[in-house]
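Morning!

As promised:
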Amino acid sequence: MKETAPQTIPVATTISAENSPAAGKTFHLPEEPLVVIQPSNKWNLLNLKDIWAYRELLFFLTWRDVKVRYKQTILGAAWAILQPLFMMIIFTIFFGRLAGVDTKGFPYPIFALAALVPWTFFSNTITASGNSLVGSAHLITKVYFPRLIVPAAAMMAGLVDFVLAFMLLVAMMIYYRVGLTMQVLFLPVLILMTALFGLGVGTWMSALNVKYRDVRFALPFLIQLWLFVSSVIVPSSSIPEKYRWVLLFNPMSGIIEGYRSALFGLPFDWPALSVAAVMTIGMLFYSVYSFGKAERSFADII
Amino acid sequence: MRPIIRVENLSKLYYLGGSGAAYSTLRETVMEVARKPLRYLRGNNNSQTLWALKDVNFEVMPGDVVGIIGRNGAGKSTLLKVLSRIVEPTTGRVELYGRVASLLEVGTGFHPELTGRENIYLNGSILGMTRQEIERKFDEIVAFAEVEKFIDTPVKRYSSGMYVRLAFAVAGHLEPEILVVDEVLAVGDAAFQKKCLGKMRDVASMGRTVIFVIHNMAAVS
């Protein structure tokens, strides 16, 4: 589908002398068509103009996801906090006393929580995004809007939960009297990277899920495995030096360690973060490209 | 006078039964390849095809009210879906010189857990209205649907009649240049249907282009 720049269409509502079939009202038609619908044979780049035009829908879908999640629940938004909190407790009990875990002088609970809060954001984002398209099948077959909005809304809803969980993290940091350094200013960059990488993976998964429903079952399993290699439970320094380069293939490992560095004032692992940034951007481009290609047939096969 | 919609050589092909038609799991695809490797490699694995639309050509002038009638399976809904940009045509070209809003179903996007008020905003936004537009028309919509008292209860508690009235009320207040409607009028009781037809007539008389698909000849008038 190709769109040319829409021209403003003043609709004349005053009666005019021109004869038209409907009671004298006239339309001033644009010279170029607003929209041309034809089979696309070259790859669809992101139609940013379309997405900008539908930005309010993105907001409404996010709002809907957030509202619906906690309706008719007692604990409501507290669930956003309970998930990382309970994982932290369990990790502390089972992994807190592992020999050789170097928490760099910080108590294990806060060490784990600093990783669990962003990790929960990431894992919930890719789960929600991955299932979002299929879950919105009733919309996709009845209404047009840029389909990318669906996984994007799922990610934004996860971001809301992240903000709530982050407040827990702040509370814990105060409790453990962790001093802040200037490195905290790097946090927004890390949050952006987490969000974009989650969006990239989630978008790719959601497009795959439309064609191959295995994705719905593969995702939880994949996330469980991914957790173990993302430096959440133990820091990357626990891996012997000569194997540590393997972690570079997992951007989340670098990003999660980055959160710890930003919050605790530990040195940043710049190589890992740079690789993670490059992979995030790469993933985002790839997923948007493959999503755009697959988008044409969503309504046919969903 | 120039047309507001121009359709040239429009065709839509569907594959039946083969691995492209329904969703598949990886296992099914692997089995297909294993069983008929040559067929898969030749890309010829979809033996049954259906041309839902074949070489459709027409033009619609601004302000026209066009009714599309046909037997079941004639391709009416497919045509509307192509015009609404929901499915992509296999060949051909459609030029739209106005904004399209489509009503292929009443209550698109309604979520049962949300209240009537919240659903009006959600549904309005899905159909293409801006938030300001919805706020402006909010009272009209509620009055048209006659659900003032229930506007803040979750929609899952509505009777089916109320649900449909609310859904249609939102849809009826759309102001696009081109309105595409698919059999949505076949819902609700007789009094409400008359109200809806009245609204459709208003929309048409304001000079907007309307494309209908219906099974009931009387509704065309």
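The first helix of chain B runs from residue 26 to 35.

Hope this helps with the figure draft.
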